[in-house]
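STRUCTURE:
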């Protein structure tokens, strides 16, 4: 099976997709987190507010889309000082760039291993990105007549490629350039 994501109302549903192809993300069971090394320690955080809708059409791979929008203003490490710095002008600059976005234009793979290729935009800088992910679809034991899909993906990005690091933060001595982002999506739909 193939897995597609599209943000509701922002991308038209593919003409071949029917109502049975639309999946609904479970926001309570899904997560978007990140890890970065800072002064030899790992700083972990999360983006609690992000949106997406899943469209699954295994007979039409050309309709593959992922469109995930991330609210950067709510990014948190649960450390007030780090959060203030992270949201400030030298890093995310959430006043100017309140949203990050990943839009995939193709998905390849089979079985339970896939890769979504597309564009990642952070701080209004867009770069090519590839998001490998695993996918499992099964009956939902908690909801008879429903399917449950779980997708897990990990991408490592270089923050400086997106301008996340201005002035003294443009160096990598305090905060590493590589940031690991983990996406865990749980979604359901009727059989």
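SEQUENCE:
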């Amino acid at each position: 099976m193939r897995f597609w994501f599209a943000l509701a109302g922002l991308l038209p549903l593919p003409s071949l997709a029917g109502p049975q192809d639309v999946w609904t993300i479970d926001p309570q069971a899904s997560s978007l987190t990140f890890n970065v090394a800072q002064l030899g320690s790992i700083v972990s955080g999360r983006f609690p507010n992000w949106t997406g809708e899943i469209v699954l059409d295994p007979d039409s791979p050309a309709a593959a889309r992922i469109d995930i929008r991330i609210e950067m203003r709510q990014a948190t490490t649960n450390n007030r000082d780090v959060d203030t710095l992270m949201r400030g002008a030298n890093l995310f600059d959430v006043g100017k760039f309140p949203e990050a976005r990943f839009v995939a234009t193709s998905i390849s793979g089979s079985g339970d291993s896939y890769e979504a290729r597309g564009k990642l935009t952070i701080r209004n800088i867009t770069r090519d990105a590839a998001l490998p992910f695993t996918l499992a679809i099964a009956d939902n034991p908690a909801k008879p007549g429903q399917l449950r899909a779980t997708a897990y993906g990990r991408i490592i990005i270089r923050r400086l490629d997106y301008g996340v690091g201005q002035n003294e933060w443009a160096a990598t001595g305090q905060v590493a350039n590589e940031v690991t982002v983990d996406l865990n999506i749980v979604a359901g739909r009727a059989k």
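REMARK: The domain at 4-190 is CATH 2.40.128.110 (Lipocalin).
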